[in-house]
Specification:
The complex is a heterodimer.
Chain A lengths: L1 E5 L11 H4 L14 H20 L4 E4 L13 H11 L4 E8 L7 H13 L4 E6 L3 H6 L7 H17 L4 E4 L4 E5 L13 E5 L3 H10 L2 E4 L5 H17 L9 E9 L3 H19 L13 H11 L9 H7 L3 E3 L1 H15 L3 E5 L7 H28 L1
Chain B lengths: L2 E8 L2 E8 L4 E5 L10 H7 L3 E5 L16 H14 L5 E6 L1 H12 L4 E7 L19 H8 L6 H6 L9 H15 L9 H4 L7 E6 L7 H10 L3 E6 L6 H4 L1 H14 L1
Parallel strand pairs in B: 3-4, 3-5, 5-6, 6-7, 7-8
Antiparallel strand pairs in B: 1-2, 2-4
Helix pairs in contact in B: 1-10, 2-3
Classes of the chains: A alpha/beta, B alpha/beta.
């Protein structure tokens, strides 16, 4: 069982009248709201939190890529990962991931990931993603080519890591006479690959066939994760092997305080800032991003999305976030990790307005009072 | 009215074609909204012409979007289609995405298209008059964007009611097919403006005064830069000219085609 601290690096100062005045925290949200001085403080706090995760014994930290939004102000996770490669000592650094259709050419991703792997002494986990729906607006990238660009970029990056260069790549979207990236990664044949998914069968099959790791995209109801992870295990069986739990990851917001009551009292306003403001506009399917049939079908899944929650009871019933005393958090996580059969827990310990000191306290309580026992219990359960 | 439905094979692309009315041939090239089933405007034209109403690849039951990567591929598709129908110098009535396509076809095969009607045409980038965002999810917002009177029954009926509406799949397909050629550059071809002087046949440009998606400035630009074009501006009309001003637009169209 592995524990990761995931960070979005969100913006914490959306106005009170945001819900009435703005349709989205993405793409069209005026960037005048971003105050660079305050942004600098936030980035440094957020990096401190991830360095703390390493010191507290987390197995890894996660950063990710988003553009032109308040939800995750980390357009270049590779910049953050390279700082963390120096400032952390032991933990894995998971970039979940680079949105590779936006890298021109995608061999840039192979190069930068190799640099991070070298600097960190082989601690990188390489996430490769198709990019969020809103980002096809932000970059004016044609979403009707998203999937084929992803596949071309993906195969090219793997080749760049594994085949001696220089070689030629004449694909549909990129034409490269010389592919010969310096540097190469320490981890051979290449860093472990994580691919996040929101439940599309096509992605699940792809990850299962290639024996990569599948990360459940968060903010859905527990039942939705269960269906997707079960589907993944079935697909692995179809490829004649049994899933290693470490091929599965589950990401969700976690908050720990001294007692259940205190945890909810401290956490709730921050949780609602996240749910009602930062999630607004995240789920956008530009034309062709997935098939028309999938888009029609995904509407069903959206009825199980966190932004439909109105009360604490909705959050608890759907397992959208785990909140409580260390005992409560451990007990709930233990039950659900066993049920979902996942080997990686990706905790979101900061989600917007949660202040730095409370985030650190949350992580410390989790690392000291939840993680060790849970790790032991799960390792025993997963090997039995 | 005489109506015939056909499925053509155009260079490997299954293509839906509706043929409406009697008389000399006329080709209608539809908009991003995908008016591929005859509407009142088509019926008006079909009183004098045999209207050929093909669905672009990816619209309605037409396939082959995988072979379309940009507006030029779409234009070549119509070169093939006109060849298949044995049509030359044919009058073309075209609307929005279809009008942009018509201009591109006439550039590469001037002999195929005769007198041309361009209604609320996409295809240009006009400095200072940006087109609005068409690729949004909210039908209410789209209604505001496209119709002069978004509260009219016409505007309400135009869009699927919700995701359970059986029209939703076709709607999503139409959006995807439009995005394929119109996402970036956004609904225009940066080189088209530089070619307009080569489109020297007679052109009737028709625009709604209150078009928010493609502002009237685009109509004025076309009219000024096409060597042989005139502009008709319809009052109290948005982007949805054939729906909002059916009779007026049809009368202008038929007058023009009768006079050239």
């Amino acid at each position: 069982m592995k524990f990761f601290a995931f960070h979005l690096m969100p913006w914490d100062r959306l106005p009170d009248d945001f819900a009435e005045k703005y349709d989205t925290a993405w793409t069209w949200l005026p960037n005048e709201m971003f105050d660079p001085e305050h942004g600098g403080e936030l980035y440094n706090n957020y990096l401190d939190q991830l360095v703390l995760a390493d010191q507290l014994g987390f197995d890894g930290v996660c950063v990710n890529e988003h553009h032109q939004n308040a939800y995750g102000t980390m357009p270049s996770p590779n910049l953050m990962a390279s700082i963390l490669a120096r400032q952390t000592k032991n933990c894995r650094i998971a970039v979940v991931g680079n949105a590779i259709p936006f890298y021109d050419p995608p061999t840039r991703c192979a190069e930068e990931f190799s640099m991070i792997d070298c600097i960190s002494g082989g601690r990188l986990i390489a996430g490769l993603v198709v990019g969020g729906g809103p980002e096809y607006y932000s970059f004016s990238k044609n979403p009707t080519f998203a999937r084929e660009m992803y596949r071309e970029a993906f195969d090219l990056i793997i080749r760049a890591w594994t085949e001696p260069g220089p070689f030629e790549h004449y694909g549909k979207h990129w034409k490269l006479k010389y592919v010969n990236p310096w540097p190469r990664p320490i981890q051979q044949p290449h860093p472990p690959i994580w691919i996040p998914g929101a439940g599309s069968r096509e992605t699940i099959q792809f990850v299962a066939q290639r024996r990569f790791a599948y990360m459940g995209i968060p903010y859905f109801h527990m039942d939705f994760f269960q269906r997707n992870f079960d589907m993944f295990r079935d697909e692995c069986e179809k490829c004649d092997y049994t899933t290693d739990p470490e091929q599965l990851g589950w990401l969700l917001p976690i908050y720990c305080a001294e007692t259940d009551e205190q945890a909810w009292a401290e956490y709730e306003p921050h949780l609602w800032y996240f749910v009602k403001k930062l999630l607004k506009g995240l789920v956008v399917f530009p034309p062709g991003y997935t098939s028309a049939r999938s888009i029609a079908g995904i509407q069903k899944g959206l009825q199980q999305f966190m932004s439909t929650c109105e009360t604490r009871e909705d959050i608890e019933a759907g397992g959208y976030a785990i909140v409580g005393s260390p005992d409560t958090v451990r007990q709930k996580l233990s039950e659900r990790i066993k049920k979902l059969g996942v080997g990686n827990l990706l905790g979101l310990f900061q989600l917007g307005t949660l202040p730095h000191d409370m985030t650190c306290k949350n992580m410390k309580l989790f690392a000291e009072k939840v993680m060790p026992g849970l790790r032991e219990e799960m390792n025993a359960a997963l090997t039995s | 009215m005489k109506t015939e439905n056909k499925t053509l094979n155009i260079a490997g692309k299954k293509t839906q074609l509706t043929i409406l009315g009697e008389g000399p041939p006329l080709l209608y090239l539809h908009s991003a909204g995908g008016e591929t089933e005859p509407i009142a405007f088509h019926h008006k034209l079909a009183e004098k012409y045999t209207v050929y109403l093909p669905a672009h690849p990816g619209f309605a039951l037409s396939e082959g979007l995988d072979q379309i990567e940009d507006i030029h591929d779409l234009a070549w598709h119509y070169v093939d289609l006109l060849g298949e129908l044995n049509l030359e110098n044919v009058p073309v009535v075209s609307y929005s995405l279809g009008a942009w396509t018509a201009a591109e076809v006439k550039l590469i095969r001037p002999n195929l298209i005769g007198p041309l009607v361009m209604i609320a045409a996409a295809g240009l980038h006009v400095d200072g008059s940006p087109m609005e965002e068409l690729f949004i999810d909210s039908f209410d917002k789209l209604r505001e964007l496209l119709f002069f009177d978004p509260a009219s029954q016409e505007a309400i009926d135009y869009f699927p009611a919700d995701t359970n509406d059986p029209r939703i799949l076709m709607w999503l397909r139409a959006r995807e097919a439009t995005a394929r050629v119109g996402w970036n550059p956004y609904l225009h071809d940066p080189k088209l403006a530089g070619h307009l002087h080569r489109l020297d046949g007679p052109v009737q440009v028709i625009w709604g005064r209150h078009d928010k998606l493609i502002p009237l400035a685009h109509g004025e630009y076309y009219t000024e830069h096409l060597p042989n074009a005139k502009l008709a501006v319809l009052e109290e009309c948005g982007h949805m000219v054939p729906y909002e001003k059916t009779d007026e637009a049809a009368a202008i169209t038929l007058d023009f085609l009768g006079s050239v």
